[in-house]
Amino acid sequence: MTEELILQRLAAAFGLVERSTWRRELVSALEQLGERRSVDRAHLEIELQADADLLRELAGHLTIDESHFLRHPQQFELLLTHLGSRLDRAPPGERLRVWSAGCAKGEEPYSVALLARERFDRHRAARIEIVANDINRDALDRARRAAYTPWSFRGVPEPLVRRYFTMTEAGHLALAPAVAATVGFEHASIQERLVRTPAAAVDAILFRNVAIYLEPAAIRAIYTGLHAALRPSGLLLIAPADPLPPAELFERSAEDVAGAFVRRRARTSGANGKVFAQLRFQAASQRAAVRVDADRAPASMPLAAGHGEGAGSNRSAAGPEHREPVASHSPSPEHDRGDRRRTALELDLASQFIATRPTAPHGYLMRGRLLLAQQRPAEAVDDFRRALFVGGDNRVARFWYAAALQRSGNMDRARSQAAQLAVQLAALPEDAVLEDGQTVAAGLLRAVELMRTSLG
Question: 4 phi and psi, to 5 degrees?
Answer without folding.
Answer: -60, -45
